[in-house]
Amino acid sequence: MYRMIGALLLSAGVALLTGPKLIAYLKKLHFGQTIYELGPAHQQKQGTPVMGGLMMAAGILVSSLAFHPARWSGGWDFIIPLLAVSFLNMCIGFADDYIKAVKKRHDGLSPWQKIAGQVIVAAGFSVYCYFCPAVGSSIRIPFAGTDWDLGIFYIPVMTLLGIFIVNSSNLQDGLDGLLGTVSAVGSSAWAVICLLLMLVPSLAGIADPDGVAVCGTFALATAGACVGFLRYNRYPAKTFMGDTGSMLLGGGAVATAMLLRLPVLLALIFFTPVMSSVSVILQRYYFKLTHGKRIFLMSPIHHHFEKKGYSETQIVSMYAGVTLILSLIAVLSILK
Amino acid sequence: MYRMIGALLLSAGVALLTGPKLIAYLKKLHFGQTIYELGPAHQQKQGTPVMGGLMMAAGILVSSLAFHPARWSGGWDFIIPLLAVSFLNMCIGFADDYIKAVKKRHDGLSPWQKIAGQVIVAAGFSVYCYFCPAVGSSIRIPFAGTDWDLGIFYIPVMTLLGIFIVNSSNLQDGLDGLLGTVSAVGSSAWAVICLLLMLVPSLAGIADPDGVAVCGTFALATAGACVGFLRYNRYPAKTFMGDTGSMLLGGGAVATAMLLRLPVLLALIFFTPVMSSVSVILQRYYFKLTHGKRIFLMSPIHHHFEKKGYSETQIVSMYAGVTLILSLIAVLSILK
What's the complex ipTM? Predict the structure, then answer.
């Protein structure tokens, strides 16, 4: 318990303390993102440094390792892949941010380079989970309280899920404080789910209590890091998390869900980022099918709300409320 | 489990659906509060209808009763006093709002009338808990994991606590979305604590599992109601909760904490409202002692932050982050 509280506070502390120096440093390097592709009427955001996600990364890394609950004895089969998926995805985002912001090449990584990197990470992790004794190929279906064995299909399905979630997270990151707030709530939900599973492992057929403790510590570290980061990212933002941060958070969420065998809960806890992706896909296909009509005024859907006249803070508040309610439902769903 | 999800969703739904009609009705009755005592530079809020808290009251009442988990068999010793404390405190707030807004008498209830009402409710409830077999005079000390028997002193101490918490809640309600957001997070924390205690009653020496389920359902209903209410109360607010809402939320929080024998956790979960009261008290005594000097630019402390140049939404985000972190610590503290 004290370890977990430690992870939460240390992570928030690291993000808060590294914030000012990191922002000053990023500004000095002229890490201002070119904003024109980011949404309606955000020209005034030109020059805000991206890659602020690095402060979350620092918080999560330091505090997951410092408060690793398994004391060299176990849980490494969870923490290493968890950090690997988060930070490898972050590196892809970082490369993109770096090319755009420092090298000033507007195109960043090519879409294929990005996808190739994501496929490698997601596929590697899916194979790992498939063969990991504490995870395996069956996933839990909450509400029903049963397991569903996907067999060998686990690998392709989870690979696609991994890519989808990371990109969803990436697409949602478009308004000050939006993804940070949603992730703070969502990570807290994962932490609570881990606590319930630590108390009563049979609730979700968990084979490795140490592994659950690791996921809980990681989730608390993420929640702390998000709250710390929001200090600088809330409207009006002093820094953006960039692809660096959004792909870190997306990777962490999907890895946690898969290790706990609860990827189904992403549909609730990660509902709003998923909605962002789905809105983009719907918009694109509808546009092609109808040769030029649009469903939303602009996609991802948070820009649609903006065009409808909602302010950034109103949209953040709305998304946070929806995520809170869905997260509570997710927590309740694992009880029988 | 389905009952609890039902309570959460029904309550949010009731608050959302009654919102527009209630706001229109309150406006028609000229329920605009006179704003000049509410803080710096909020003259433009003149005319915003107060007593929007009634939509939360509707949500909480309907859904706690509709999804009362104990099926006529038990738990009534918890739900009746819980609703009584919340709604009697609400009535005091309502009387004050009504006199100010409808009767246009700026002074509202006299301070003594208010305090007298609060004392009666808090003392009555403390006596009830003292004699209730499932509660009693001993409170749980989290972290230590031990009980502390206050004996007969339970009654005066808890009476003072009840009054203090309700007034803290009342004092914090001064910025758009502030208390609603803090309460949404805080109620979620109480709900999670109830879930943990339902799974492992021994964690806090709980004698009445039905009672815990009742508190959990009430907390989820409150969280849902807050999220629904925030739809209309977030910046820029279309309605204020008024004393009606703030005393309802304060009463609900202190009653939940006392029934679960965890009043100590109010120091974490209800930290920011408590800070609001403490800042007022410090300011007043310091002013008297020094014959005119001030610690804060203005009290309660959220107005101090406003004068420092933070926007309303920034302050709400900060309070929400602090409450989230402290609430997670509160949840962790009941584990041993």
Answer: 0.90
